[in-house]
Amino acid sequence: MAAQSKLLFQLNKYYNERVQVRKAQVGKTLREVCKVVQDVLKEVEVQEPRFISSLSEQNGRFEGMEVVSPTEFEVVLYLNQMGVFNFVDDGSVPGCSVLKLSDGRKRSMSLWVEFITASGYLSARKIRSRFQTLVAQAVDKCTYRDVVKMVADTTEVKLRIKERYVVQITCAFRCAGIWPRSAAHWPLPHCPWPNPNLVAEVKTEGFNLLSKESTYMKDKQSSAEGDAWVISFTEAENKLLKGGYRKKCLSILKTLRDRHLDLPGNPIIPYHLKTLLLYECEKHPREGEWDETCIGDRINGILLQTISCLQNRRCPHYFLPNLDLFKGKSPSALDSAAKQCWRILRELLTNSRSLESL
Predict the structure, then answer these.
(1) The pLDDT value given to residue 219
(2) What torsion, rounded to 10 degrees, do the Cα atoms 203, 209, 214, 218 define?
């Protein structure tokens, strides 16, 4: 027990000295970045009222803003009126789906009429291309034009702010109250976590469809695949992380990642750690396994799982296991991340004061 309380003391110290500092720094950056993005989006809206900014601050949090890493952010811009389209995920591109004009509906009934292909699909690529043009014009006109630039050589809409931060702005549709067929196996039949009430809440929350590149689309030449939308479960995942010390655990892992695993080729991003934490929740389904005294064990378990995924060169998405989150990463980058992960884990397991230097 003495060893456990020593570890708990070290973890709390690490959380207060390192994690809170990271959080405060990221929070400060977020406010800086959001001011610029809001200004750009205001200009976009003047030119094209269909693209309405949904980025807002609520209780100190920015709704619609995801922290990818301390210098990379993603803003999700929710579009209106998906109603005349059917959501079709037939699995032809893992992690993606298409939006097809419902039978009997006329194109003219859609707010997005000029982005509907001849086959009746709402093209994610065409909407993104139009939005990119609007953002480029807005960047030239906005108040912060001296500190913001468009990132060239990409079909994504990305801004570079103060030469330090990159923000991707992604158009999206909310799909609440429905659940994708490709995630129909979830939750696993014999796993006690999450409990049925939480499952119902998560499925009601639904998912988002994002207009962005997928590594799986790069292999596909047909234009229909380029018109597909990427399925995202960010809100559903966040709901699952409520309760116990799950979020604290993730914050510690993200801080370790920023300090020791921010490697060339970006083999490990915070989203991988979030995914592996969700798998760890299934392995340790009881709430008591996520209280403060167990955090050290959970962190070690997730690092071990991270090493296993890196060595196998595969990290399955939590809701869509056919989707490999390591696709497109170079084997050498994955190998060096595995070695570095081992180093951290070995330190944690063999040195009771390791967190002082990590």
Answers:
(1) 58
(2) 120
Instruction: Report pLDDT for 92.
Output: 80
Q: 3-state SS of the chain?
A: CHHHHHHHHHHHHHHHHHHHHHHHHHHHHHHHHHHHHHHHHHHHHHHCCCCCCCCEEECCEEECEEEEECCEEEEEEECCCCCCEEEECCCCCCCEEEEEECCCCCHHHCCCHHHECCCCEECHHHHHHHHHHHHHHHHHHCCCCCCEEECCCCCCCEEEECCCEEEEEEEEEEECCCCCHHHCCCCCCCCCCCCHHHHHHHHHHCEEEECCCCCCHHHCCCHHHHCCEEEECHHHHHHHCCCCCHHHHHHHHHHHHHHHCCCCCCCCCHHHHHHHHHHHHHHCCCHHHHCHHHHHHHHHHHHHHHHHHHHHCCCECCCCCCCECCCCCCHHHHHHHHHHHHHHHHHHHHCCCHHHCC
CB 313 within 8 A of CB 358: no
Q: Is the peptide bond before 194 cis (omega within 30 degrees of 0)?
A: yes
Question: In this structure, which amino acid lies at residue 221?
Answer: Q
* Whole-number Cα distances in Å, 94 to 217, 230, 318: 9, 9, 13
Spell out the residues 6+ positions from residue 281 whose beta carbon is closer than 8 angstroms to its own.
Answer: 193, 194, 240, 246, 290
Smallest CA-to-CA distance from 165 within 146, 142, 147, 143 is with 147
**Tokens representing 60?**
């100190």
Does the predicted TM-score (pTM) go above 0.90? yes
β partners of residue 229: 97
Q: Which residue shows structure tokens 């047909």?
A: 222
List of the chain residues with pLDDT < 70: 1-2, 218-225
Look at residue 348 in the predicted model and tell me its pLDDT: 93
The closest alpha carbon to 234, from 160, 175, 286, 306, belongs to: 175
- Is the backbone peptide bond immediately before 196 cis, with ω within 30 degrees of 0? no
What's residue 7's pLDDT? Answer: 85
